[in-house]
Please model this.
Amino acid sequence: MEDKKQQAAKWFEELRDQICAEFERIEDEDTNNPTPAGRFERKDWQRTDEHSPDGNTDGGGGEISLMYGRVFEKVGVNISTVHGHFSEEFRGQIPGGAENDGKFWASGVSLVAHMKNPHVPAVHMNTRMIVTSKQWFGGGMDLTPALPIAQDSADFHAANKACCERHPDVADYQELKEWCARYFYLPHRNEERGIGGIFYDQLNTGDWDKDFAFTQDVGRSFNQIFPEIVRRNMFTPWSEADHAKLLEKRGRYVEFNLLHDRGTKFGLMTGGNTEGILMSMPPEATWLKKPNGMRSVNKDRAA
Model:
């Protein structure tokens, strides 16, 4: 298992490097934009194992890669490899977390991109490996357009379907697609966050190599289809009304991540880096929408 942990952690780092390089290439392609092309800036972080029976000990850490650019308004690609002990309150919520004094190990890559052009969808992707007294993979990807484009949605779903079909012993596309729709859902709004994708968790078929190969393919598939979608839409003209819709959709994104996302909760409850965990928040969002029927107040009426 130690060798497998090292393989997984190394892959997540390699995938981070591949994605960051591709996103920087996209930044360079907007040659008519006078704003300098964005570049990722990286920041290391470390954690302590506050719940260790021996007192605070090393708990691993990670690296934040953040870019503010001319195509990508804000994009974070984070990796982490952490270990230690779950708190007494949290360990019962994780499979196998209550055994072995709540010991765990987790490694993964997590990405969220918010785009400047409202015609380019926001996107989320993450893959991870977790070890408690049990072991499994999880992750997926989903697309959140402010202005949905049928071809983008069709191509994104097709890429996910093809990825799953390359691993028939591991993944059932329809199951993972439906899982994604259920997971990225805002019950208080009675709506899905975006147009979906795939989502999986607690993946352990008994064949680690096959499970890992599928998890790697999810990352590679993302790094092929999303840049394609960005490039076809990044120069599309947009209006102030389009931008207003973008900000409104970002508000929904914030609501989901803070209220419902299990990854956010896992990171915060295991002493992860708060800056890295909340890098998924957009740089700008709004909830200020004037409903039909509301009247304006005359500020000068008191005079």
Remarks:
- Helices lie at 2-29, 150-165, 173-183, 208-233, 240-259, 262-269, 274-277.
- The chain has one domain: 2-28+37-280.
